[in-house]
Amino acid sequence: MSHPPPSPDYRALADFRYQIRLFLAYSERAARAAGLEPQQHQLMLALKGFPGGARPRIADLAERLQIAHHSTVELADRLSAAGYIRRARHVADRREVLLELTPKGERILHELSLHHAEELRCRGPALVAALERAIRSTEKGSAAPAKNPARRRQPSRRSGRVQ
User: Fold this and answer.
1) What is the pLDDT of residues 151-163, one digit of tens each?
2) Residue-range definition of the domain harbouring residue 121
3) Are 61 and 43 in contact (CB under 8 A)?
4) pLDDT digits (tens, 9 = 90+) for 138-150
5) CATH number, domain at 57?
6) Domain total of the chain
7) Which of 65, 104, 133, 150 could link 12 by a cystine bridge, Cβ 3.0 to 4.6 Å?
8) Is the dihedral of CA 58, 159, 162, 53 positive or negative?
9) Position 94 in a domain
10) Is 3 inside a domain boundary?
11) 104 touches 35 (CB < 8 A)
12) Which value, in Å, is the radius of gyration of the alpha carbons in the chain?
């Protein structure tokens, strides 16, 4: 006879979400104080921190930010107009537009990243502890993981096909 899965530890999950929100609220305030919208800061960070150091395309950044392609284009347009990023055509495929930070964008991102690193040093232990509690609470007595609707295979943003 199988036993029902354990009840989730709502307190652990809620605390973890709260700790994430504290950091994200800090990040949003810091971006606005620097004259950026939070998503603009996120795009610049995704651009600078893109895996492998490659210059990403709009579609790559849309995936990293989990936003629609046209929203990413709009963010890039605003950042370009403000002088934070520049666009360049791909050498091999002139239809492809690659993005890179300008020196102005590098400076503001560097400053914001220093502040974020300090905030992580302060809030990080509480965030890690909340994550560990949430993970432990899901492992207690669980023989098999519960189905997770958020982990379903999603259509690719580029092709609409399931990956």
Assistant:
1) 554 545 544 444 4
2) 10-140
3) yes
4) 876 454 455 665 6
5) 1.10.10.10
6) 1
7) 133
8) negative
9) yes
10) no
11) no
12) 20
